[in-house]
Amino acid sequence: MKLALIGIGLIGGSLARAAKARGNFNRIIGFDSQSEALLRALGLGVIDEAATSVAQAVVDADLVMIATPVGSIRQILREIAPNLRSAAIVTDVGSTKGSVIEAAREELGAAFARFVPGHPIAGSEHSGFEHSDAALFAGKLFISTPVEQTDARAVVRIEALWHDVGCHIERMTPTEHDNVFAAVSHLPHLLAFALVAHIAGQADADRKFAMAGAGFRDFTRIAASSPSMWSDICIANRVALGNELRSHRELLEGLQRAIDVGDRQILELAFLTATNARR
After folding, report:
1. Domains of the chain from N-terminus onward
2. pTM of the model
3. Exposure on the CB side of residue 12, measured as CA atoms within 13 A
4. In what order do the strands lie in the sheet with 63-66?
5. Cα(61)–Cα(121) distance, rounded to whole angstroms?
6. pLDDT at 123
7. According to the model, what pLDDT value does residue 158 have?
8. Mean pLDDT over residues 123-128, rounded?
9. Can you give the pLDDT at residue 130?
10. Residue 276 and residue 268: Cα distance in Å, rounded?
11. pLDDT at residue 126, rounded to an integer
């Protein structure tokens, strides 16, 4: 079985390492816009061949995995569509699903039935092939979001692959996925970026950052993530994220009023709700 891997960063590189260790594929053909990552993966034997384009990578592939930022997926789908084998399965690892599925429906034509949208919940604030790890997916979730037209056999094969590399499998509708991850992933990243940017723009930013303790570091760890990747995610999931952000702003405005008038009861109630949920 031949895998065409488009994108050899943290997720793609880790998947290739894990699949190699388990013998899931006879051959892995890789492509990445960053030639250094591509050549390093080839030199380490993580991939067997380096393609010069996405179109070349997918020729004769049984499975095509797109492990790139969501903002680039539509163009990749457009480029690979003419070169796909008639039975090839295509899948992705994007953090949003509605926009990716829409792109696949429009770009893949008849091959859309063999497109299996998915999302491994295994990222970190680090990115790039240098951080890839064969054990990254051990005990993590893989969210499968097939639609009505998705071939059931293709779904089973993709879910089996992620199970083989250590994931627990969960199925969601694309809408549920995007709503859930707008709340528990996309909004937290947005808030972490916003807080650090807010302080960084102040005259005494260096002094404040120097005084920051573990709580600040814990809350803002994810602000070290890729700005480009997260800008793509926020735009791709802007409807669900916008709803979450508006709701969050309403809560913050209520807390602002409580602070302004010294209403300890309102503050404590909000904090208690959070504490009980977190525990």
Report:
1. 2-172 (3.40.50.720), 176-278 (1.10.3660.10)
2. 0.92
3. 30
4. 49-50, 27-31, 2-6, 63-66, 89-92, 115-116
5. 25
6. 74
7. 98
8. 74
9. 84
10. 12
11. 72
Give the tens place of pLDDT for each residue, 52-71.
999 999 999 999 999 999 99
pLDDT digits (tens, 9 = 90+) for 45-55: 999 999 999 99
Distance (Å, whole) CA 143 – CA 147 = 13
Question: Of all helices (H) and strands (E), which one includes residue 2?
Answer: strand 2-6
Query: What is the chain's alpha carbon radius of gyration, rounded to the nearest angstrom?
Result: 21
pLDDT tens digits for 173-184? 999 999 999 999
- Tokens encoding 82: 């003419």
> Pick from 222, 218, 1: which is nearest to 95 by CA?
222
CA angle 21, 26, 27 (to 5 degrees): 95
Alpha helical stretches, state H, the chain: 10-22, 35-43, 54-57, 73-80, 98-108, 152-164, 174-181, 187-200, 205-211, 214-220, 227-236, 238-261, 264-278
Question: Would you state the pLDDT for residue 84?
Answer: 97
Instruction: Name the pairing type of β-strands 118-121 and 141-144.
Output: antiparallel
pLDDT at 164: 96
CA-CA distance, 188 to 219, in Å (whole number)?
A: 9
> What span, in angstroms and rounded, lies between the C-alpha atoms of 259 and 252?
10
Residue 203: phi, psi to the nearest 5? -60, -35
CA 273/CA 46 separation, integer angstroms: 47
Q: What is the sign of the dihedral through the CA atoms of 234, 36, 7 and 79?
A: positive
